[in-house]
Input
Amino acid sequence: MKKLCVVGLGYIGLPTAAMFANNGWQVHGVDVNQKAVDMINKGQIHIEEIGLQEMVEKAVECGNLRASTEVEGADCFIIAVPTPHNKDNTANLEYLVQATKSVLGKVQKGNLVIVESTIPPRTINDVVAPLFEEASWRVGEDIFLAHCPERVLPGRILIELVENNRIVGGVNDASTDKAIEVYATFVKGDLLRTSSLSAEMSKLMENTYRDVNIALANELVKISEKLGIDALEVIGLANEHPRVNLHLPGPGVGGHCLAVDPYFIIEKAPDESQLIAKARAINNSMPDFVVEQVGKRVNNSNSKIAVLGLTYKGNIDDVRESPAMEIVEKLLEEGYTLGVHDPHVSQEQVKFKILSFEEAIEDSECILVLTDHNEFKNLDEEVILRKSKQPLVLDTRNCVSINSDEIRYVNFGNLKKASEVKMNSF
Output
């Protein structure tokens, strides 16, 4: 049985480790978080992902998955550590360098090292490979190196790990061949051969494409508010064109991909990436836009706002780069009292108190929906009418279904019309 060492057991590393462990590999997972390590060794998970608990439990029970804080020898090493951005939006490769150095102490001739972490262009050639070469390894001959970026959707990770086409970019053909052999263990999609450099750039462009298109939709919302146009209707009508696919607007862009990856391109070619940079600025402006919309609909900044949702997308527990978190901070700075509710977020993830739905909306003048969790699609309207001071729902995700005429519903399609309604008209 081949041995695999996965460094980084977060939102990508743990599902990847569990998938390999359930497909014939002896997997050793590594993470600096001792609590996560202890939970995994008990067959438990520290992140939320559909089907992951059962998969981890099965892998641990059969002895194919175990975890520790130290790297061990293996036939193949997968590095899946975070690559956050610095305050100036350049890539922070500290975790990647540390992980590579930890692997360097255990690697043997003939081993394969795969970097799954999202990285700026030329990182494999200019950062990772030189670390091995400085230790006298001939990369592509003695050891093999590839970049195989993840491209999965939270909530569907275990499905898409298997079904999606996979980009496999080696530093040379031999490295690509070996990486393809590894992923062929379970991947049913096509294994797309390329160079490590093209793999790096293609991953970044996948998310940049989406970021730019979301920026277009968000800009449309601002234009439509000014002109009194229903932006959501416009998007629906435009998308009836056979070659148009406008994305949906929202309170901003979050997560560790769309909100970060474009900066990795901008960092390497700032003068040439003006459209990408502008799209980032537009999406970054949306939290302020949302706070402005709240201010237009409540009596004053002493009002209570019920905030529904903290994660960057629905039905997950990931708050990384979430615009909802930024909006909460901005509302607090404005002096609002907040009631925050998110059924997917634990109290230890955030510094402000998580309340029940009823506690959050009690005496509120605005129910602000920032995440499209399934739990928010059909809110208890009787509770809203009974508990809230002003029955108003401001839905930045266009996900809530409201049936009562007594509840004022505002989304990104009726901002202009709704803002003209006076507060004493209820």
Confidence is low (pLDDT under 50) at residues 421-426. The chain is about 40% helix and 15% strand. The chain has three domains: 3-196, 203-284, 286-425. The CA atoms of residues 300 and 336 lie 8 Å apart.
